Amino acid sequence: MAMSFDSYMKDMVKPMREDLTRLGITELLTPEQVEEAIEKSKDGTMLLVVNSVCGCAAGQCRPGVAKALQNDTLPTYTYTVFAGQEKDATAKAREYLAPYPPSSPSIALFKNGELAHFIQRHQIEDRSADMIAGDLISAFNEFCK
């Protein structure tokens, strides 16, 4: 029986999505959900993880986010978009990440609806999960109080 490419990709990325959603991070699947999340974040702080299928997402980014979320000081809201999967939602999210170029994986922290801290792919791929967690924890402690 032939499997469609879309079905294959959904099955393949399911555990990659669950790496974040099991932490309580909410997926944003549409541009409208992204806009609503940004609007909500105007009254607090928001972590936005641009998830990806690449090895640095699995090896460093998602584990780094998981470790950082064990910190005492945390963002008010936590969301994720999946690059290459929900393309319209990811494109909308990237509008709020300017002036940075598209980067996946990447991690953004917003405060009162404004980008406060951003970790690009090149800052993820050569660093350990512990280093990424440390960077996020410092940002949480600075911006999420």
What do these coordinates show?
With 145 residues, the chain is α/β, with parallel strands linked by helices. It is built from five helices and five strands; from the N terminus they run αβαβαβαββα. It has helices at residues 5-21, 31-40, 55-68, 87-95, 129-143, and strands at residues 26-27, 45-51, 77-82, 106-111, 114-119. It has a five-stranded mixed beta sheet, sandwiched between helices. A hairpin with a 2-residue loop joins β4 (106-111) and β5 (114-119). α2 (31-40) runs parallel beside α4.
List keywords for this structure.
single chain; 145 residues; alpha/beta; 5-stranded mixed beta sheet; 45% helix; globular
Could you provide a short overview of the structure?
With 145 residues, the protein is α/β, with parallel strands linked by helices. It has helices spanning 5-21, 31-40, 55-68, 87-95, 129-143, and strands at 26-27, 45-51, 77-82, 106-111, 114-119. Strands 1-3-2-4-5 form a 5-stranded mixed β-sheet, with helices on both faces.
